[in-house]
């Protein structure tokens, strides 16, 4: 029975330790981020700026005009979905410290984005 308890304890620690690290790393990017969305196409518009919030690695809107959702991984890779009215876009990229960048695409448009922690 003693060997069983040690094995069970080791298994619990092996499972719990990575989860604790993931929570700590996910919170590294917590806060409000100012995201500038750009497109090379004039018909798609250019220069929109959106504020998003990140809490425990989860992305949420900081604006009533735009709905944001998604996740930031431990190492900073980000996947996000933005919608306003009938328009919808998805983006991906990387955050690092106080900045980030990536690409986005919608139904008929695409482009790049940059972010700064506020």
Automatic annotation (TrEMBL):
It comes from the Bacteria. Keywords: Signal. Residues 1-22 form the signal peptide. This is Heme utilization protein.
